[in-house]
Amino acid sequence: MYNKLLSPLDLGFTTLKNRVLMGSMHTMLEEAPNGFERAAAYYAERARGQVGLIVTGGIAPNVEGSVAPGAAKLDEPKEVAKHQLITQAVHQEGGKICMQILHTGRYAYHPMAVAPSPLKAPIAPFPPKELDAAGIEKQIAAFVNCAALAQEAGYDGVEVMGSEGYLINQFIAKKTNKREDEWGGAYENRIKFPTEIVRRVREKVGPDFIIIYRLSMLDLVEDGSTWDEVVTLAKEIEKSGATIINTGIGWHEARIPTIGTVVPRGGFAWVTKRMMGEVNIPLIATNRINTPEIAEQVLQEGCADMVSMARPFLADAFFVQKAMDNKSNEINTCIACNQACLDHTFQGKLTSCLVNPRACHETELNYTPAEQKKKVAVVGAGPAGLASATVLGERGHTVDLFEAEGEIGGQFNMAKVIPGKEEYGETIRYYDVMLKKYGVNVHLNHRIMLDELVAGNYDEIIIATGVTPRQVNFEGAHHAKVLSYADVLYKNKPVGNKVAIIGAGGIGFDMAEFLAHQPEHESPSLHTANYMKEWGVDMEYSKGGALTAAEPAPSPREIYLLKRSTGKHGKNLGKTTGWIHRSSLKMKEVKMMGNVEYQKVDDAGFHIVRDGNPEVLAVDHVVVCAGQEPLRDMYEELKAKGLSVHLIGGANVAAELDAKKAINEASYLCAKL
């Protein structure tokens, strides 16, 4: 079924069993207590899942290249033994693994940062020290030494990180290289740094060692590389001895979303396709390839020789095995939410996955067969209830899942209709398949009552009833103009052309996004060309960095996004995605107002006081997104009757819609019951 994807790739001295690369992700495992043992289990599980080649998270070649103080590096022989835990574990499962060598340059979160020019990065706290000629030689030698130690540790190869705006990329682009010596100025001088690294690494490691070079094919910053320069670099990297070229998309400081869920599936494969035929070594396409179908399509359309998927292997370690077994409907699909992976990394927390809490926790969270089979009732089929029912079913318990609505999914049924969040529907699909696979008894349109639960003789009862929209109590709160977010997203109630949204948290932003899109037009997240146009990516690549003026489709409504507090709207949104939501709403000309006091709603509109001044917003509707209340009916009464009852998810804490916490809580609870 996935003929191209699952076909081997001959690299000359070795063959990859399929064309799937597990792309590099910084998980923070190497920095954690017993981290290398945990990393070994994490990578081994993906190797057991039949991925063709794994690339580790970035490992620094020296202290100044490290991400932050204490971050993983490999520059001394004494550090080799820890890495051997990983390589041996992967090889025992029949896998292959490369170590990524990552030098952050001016992106470093420490004062020892170095760069080709002393220009501070907008996303890093410290200005870098400009490297002199001897310093540059020292950095090149560090890459070579790191590669040699990786080879000694048993890695099958290394990936030289030359993209995403890190040190090597900083040498290549005019934006960050202002030097006037032999390492700056003309393009051939600026690319000497990467070509020397690859050439000297190849010289050191010999011919039978994989060298992947991660090449920035699309910088998405002003004064980035032109397409002709990118092609020139690719050819020089091939001559220098690279085995494979992997595609890098966008610098970390670029203001174009490149991996968020708003990005169309396979949305950047066109860039790699442009490079096909320019070099004779395999090319890897990357970014938002999250199903075997998309991966196969990318390969069949001649966009690349191989595909890289990173976060999909957090979501499901057995992605490739399931594709091989024609069970792709059982794949737990990555929804590109970033909430438990990138957001965690940028907060210095251990990576995991919203839809799969076992990711990076393989040594502590396992769903083993239950020693004592129990009869369990799960009340509520939102994310917490679905995770509970599937884990319990997998472990062999008899499970009854009760849902008052006519479909499973809970709040995810609202999330999936938000433009740019269509992927959330995949999680519902996955759970639906798992419920059937594990024989869970699903009772839809069944609002279970207390007596029924008591009479059911259940060994355990899990209350996962979720949340209900919080009511507002100003005058006119029940006026026909006032709607809740559930009225709009779930009950499809019509909304007029002028609308005020109360609440600027995640739900308020989602509502604004939903209302700011033309209902008759599909979301740009579903069409690559529309998406690139909306965000200002020049697919003709007519100048360096491939940026052009953004042309967002106009909003069909005039929208006010209101909040009581002062300060930035959406300050509690995801660390790596909040800026995307703010930028998107800005492009749609949503009016963001803070320090607002809500007075009343009447036929004239919404009466507010802003910064002490009374105003009337002449709106057709007011949509309330002011948080939610937990639905925990029956919990205390069941407990009082001496039953073994557990309260999880939004029903337990309803601070914000938090599927990450809900699924995590459910998984840990049900792994033990």
UniProtKB/TrEMBL annotation:
InterPro entries: Aldolase_TIM (IPR013785), FAD/NAD-bd_sf (IPR036188), FAD/NAD-binding_dom (IPR023753), NADH:flavin_oxidoreductase (IPR051793), OxRdtase_FMN_N (IPR001155)
Pfam family, one: Pyr_redox_2
PANTHER family tied to this protein: 2,4-DIENOYL-COA REDUCTASE, 2,4-DIENOYL-COA REDUCTASE [(2E)-ENOYL-COA-PRODUCING]
Key words of the record: Flavoprotein, FMN, Iron, Iron-sulfur, Metal-binding, Oxidoreductase
Presence of keyword Oxidoreductase: yes
Domain NADH:flavin oxidoreductase/NADH oxidase N-terminal per the UniProt entry, residue ranges: 4-327
Organism (species): Microscilla marina ATCC 23134
BP terms from Gene Ontology: fatty acid beta-oxidation, unsaturated, even number, reductase/isomerase pathway
EC number: 1.3.1.34
Protein name per the record: 2,4-dienoyl-coa reductase (Nadph)
Cofactor(s) needed for function: FMN; [4Fe-4S] cluster
Family: In the N-terminal section; belongs to the NADH:flavin oxidoreductase/NADH oxidase family.
